[in-house]
Amino acid sequence: MSGHGHVVPNPDGSKARCGGPLICPDCAREKAAMQDNQSGRNPHAESFGEPTERQQIAERFAHRHSSTVSILKQFAVRHLPLNLRDFSLASQDLAFDMADTLPDGPELTTGLRKLLEAKDCFVRAAVDGIDNA
To answer: Among the residues of 1-133, which ranges form H helices?
Structure first.
């Protein structure tokens, strides 16, 4: 898989790029499988009936408001390479602690969203540090 995705033929005969793993579900699955292979995780776990990490998070917080669960699922870490997971795990732990402690509401949702934004920044900073090493 290249960084830009694969070429998709259009009905009019023209061709377009799919948009890559952030937009294309096929590329996202392919990228996740490649990362799972690097991490030692079974890339076909879902086909064996094992729930995904996002499903496990949704089940753990099923009693919470749907907007809270939606944001908490974004704290999944298994898709990350092993050398970046520690940066995400600290944020995941804090997010889960807040969800376990605080009531549902707009302030919790906003706090989790801002924590998610911060987590993304921390991971990008770690990537920059790896790239510059």
So the answer is: 25-39, 53-60, 66-72, 82-101, 106-132
Q: Virtual CA dihedral for 119, 123, 125, 131, nearest 10 degrees?
A: -170
- Tens of pLDDT, residues 32-83: 666 655 555 554 555 567 789 999 999 999 999 999 999 999 999 998 888 8
Reported as a single tens digit per residue, the pLDDT across 75-93 is 999 988 888 888 899 999 9
Burial level of 88, CB count in 10 A (0-12/13-18/19+)?
buried
Q: Which amino acid is at 53?
A: E
CA distances from 71 to 33, 42, 66 (A): 23, 25, 9
DSSP 19: -
pLDDT at 87: 85
Residues of the domain holding 9: 1-50
DSSP secondary structure code for residue 41 in this structure: -
If one counts the domains in the chain, the total is: 2
Residues 72 and 37 in one domain: no
Indicate if 21 and 70 belong to the same structural domain: no
Could you give the CA distance from residue 29 to residue 43 in angstroms, rounded to a whole number?
A: 9
